[in-house]
Design goal:
By secondary structure, the chain is of the alpha+beta class. The chain has one domain (3-86, 102-290). It has helices spanning 33-55, 64-85, 107-125, 129-154, 203-222, 230-247, 268-294, and strands at residues 3-6, 9-12, 17-22, 28-32, 170-171, 179-181, 184-186, 199-200, 257-259, 265-267. The strands form four sheets. It has a four-stranded antiparallel β-sheet, with no helix packed on it. It has a two-stranded antiparallel ribbon with strand order 1-2. Strand 6 (179-181) and strand 7 (184-186) form a beta hairpin.
């Protein structure tokens, strides 16, 4: 356990394993910080969904089974997408496919599985998909903000090297050298994924802040929404948009790249993001036009004079 010192208190920082539980003999069970943050993110998102669906006139008990589908969709979809895009890494040791404690989850894969599972459940239960999707978008953005804190603790999804004079530069610890996180010193750590001796962009922090800001904006928009599906469409555009930009500051090369002619080499996340942003614009236009057609015509004003 490697906390940084902050006055008389200690705060976990760049702390891949929160605690290791001894089992028997030399066996032990490490509890990864990333996994714990995912659990906190999921529970927070579920709490938000329960409250907002009730405010929207939907009985919370009717969507309770959906939470299990969301959890399985996030885990299975994110892991499966990573495995399919890194098959060579698993040849000869396929049991590692289920070892999510070793890392390797792509959130876009989880998003696809969540969308499919949610659509199936809501259609079966005859619940309004777009209204629930709007609320799920707010909860999902909040979950992403919390979940990315786990990336900071684990040292994954790190940024490119940057000059130490950059005000937001951070340095992950090595086994012998301390790290630095916004002016605070992080003690040496025996488990990390990020590069040892480089100051890097805090891309995990960027994504976490964007998640929180997106959740706040979507909630503001939800209270002023003009048509069902508006918040969902906004989320499908905003999330890939900020991820697209942040990708240029990422330093980990294991996420895969695709060459698209004049666009050059884009990461897999950027390519998927372009598809989602385009789909979001189309969805917004279609739903907006549909809502306007459904609006009752205003009564004609009687002529005077």
């Amino acid at each position: 356990m490697m906390p940084w010192a902050f006055g008389a208190a200690t705060i976990p920082a760049m702390w891949p394993v929160l605690v290791t539980i001894p089992l028997f003999g030399k066996a032990s069970l490490p509890i990864p910080a990333f996994g714990v943050m995912l659990v906190i993110a999921f529970l927070s998102a579920v709490t938000v969904m329960r409250r907002l669906v009730k405010r929207d006139g939907i009985e919370p008990a009717r969507i309770e089974p959906l939470f299990t589908i969301l959890l399985l969709g996030i885990i299975v979809g994110s892991r499966l997408f990573h495995v399919l895009t890194h098959l060579d890494d698993f040849k000869g040791h396929w049991l590692d496919v289920i070892r999510i404690d070793k890392g390797g989850m792509v959130m876009y894969g989880g998003l696809i599985f969540v969308l499919v599972g949610t659509l199936w459940y809501l259609r079966r239960e005859k619940l309004p998909f777009l209204r629930v999707a709007d609320i799920a978008a707010i909860a999902g953005a909040l979950g992403l903000g919390i979940g990315r804190i786990g990336c900071t603790l684990a040292g994954c999804d790190y940024g490119k090297p940057v000059d130490p004079s950059f005000p937001l530069a951070i340095k992950f610890p090595s086994t012998t050298q301390p790290g630095h996180f916004f002016g605070l010193t992080v003690p040496p750590n025996t488990m990390h994924l990020a590069p040892d001796d480089h100051w890097v962009y805090p891309t995990q922090v960027y994504q976490s802040l964007c998640g929180f800001l997106t959740a706040l904006f979507l909630y503001w928009l939800w209270k002023r929404r003009r048509f069902p599906g508006q918040i969902f469409a906004a989320f499908l555009f905003i999330k890939p948009a900020y991820r697209f930009v942040i990708e240029y500051y990422r330093g980990d090369a294991d996420r895969g790249f695709i060459t698209l002619g004049p666009l050059g080499a884009l990461s897999q996340a950027q390519v998927i993001g372009l598809v989602l942003m385009t789909s979001a614009v189309v969805l917004w236009i279609v739903l907006d036009r549909r809502s306007k057609r459904a609006e009752p015509a205003e009564p004609a004003t009687p002529a005077t004079g």
